[in-house]
Amino acid sequence: MQKLLERLIEKHLPTTRYGKCAEYIPVLAEQDPSQLGITVVTKDQKVYQAGRFPKRFTLQSISKVIALMLAVMDNGDRKVFSKVGMEPTGDPFNSIYNMEMMKWKKPLNPMINAGALVVTSLIKGRTAREKAGRIIRLIEEMTGSKEIEVDEEVFRSEYETAHRNRALAHLLKELNLIDRVEETLEAYLLQCSIQVTCEDLAKIGLCLARYGQTFDNRMVIPVYVSRMAKTFMVTCGMYNESGEFAIKVGIPAKSGVSGGILASVPMEMGIGVFGPALNEKGNSIGGVALLEDLSRELDLSIF
């Protein structure tokens, strides 16, 4: 495994020159686009790492998976999905268009920004910080880490430039899908700004692969919730590249615009990838290529 990861990193490092870092979030635009790394944690708790990546980076949209699981555990799936749909979309993750055009006025799924704002509003907590704190505690349970926290610089950068997400939140308020615009927006941006390591991502992936059981055999997510999360990762987790990713890679995955990708191979392994150079769909260009080859070499596709 170690030699395979090192070989694939060397092969796909040149790919990073064809992408670019997220520019609409000033702090993320400052990342080194030439970085590419991967961590794999297997079912027998072996950890393999290769490549070059920072100690910590922010979850961004990967946090949508954690928030969804927590919201369902807090409210039950019936309440959550009365306010957000279950269908994939071919539109960009931050689109306002589909909210305007759909006959049924709710976001198509929890992995686009509009749906994620609704989901975050349903997490129990008196304040935005309390909601974000509960997401952090769930990540700590899934990973065993006690070093999960918000990157305040990234949060401030996102909050000051969140014009489209603020517009989405106001539209959701008009549709009676959320109550408090600024509190919901703050909680959502706090969850996006949570810092993790590549190993943390892999351990989250392994927890999902084991249907809610951590690498040290603690049950922290109900089986049906972990199964639901992985299904959304397959159908909606890679933005409007999800269908192509499912065909070429074939494993549940969720990306974020910081360059992270969380992937989960049922009953086998969790995978964390980081590569901040993004393709036009907002996914790590090197990370997607890396996972495609890894899946082919190890026959990981669930299909």
Automatic annotation (TrEMBL):
Any one Pfam family here would be Glutaminase
The gene from which this protein is expressed is glsA
Listed under catalytic activity are:
L-glutamine + H2O = L-glutamate + NH4(+)
Q: One GO MF term, please?
A: glutaminase activity
State the InterPro entries in the record. Answer: Beta-lactam/transpept-like (IPR012338), Glutaminase (IPR015868)
In terms of superkingdom, the source organism counts as Bacteria
Could you tell me what this protein is called?
Answer: Glutaminase
EC number from the UniProt entry: 3.5.1.2
Which keywords are on file for this protein?
A: Acetylation, Hydrolase
Q: Which amino acid positions bind substrate, per UniProt? A: S61, N113, E158, N165, Y188, Y239, V257
Subunit comment: Homotetramer.
User: From its record, what is one biological process in GO terms?
Assistant: glutamate biosynthetic process
What family does the database annotate?
Answer: Belongs to the glutaminase family.
Which source organism? Thermoactinomyces intermedius
Q: What NCBIfam families does the annotation carry?
A: Gln_ase
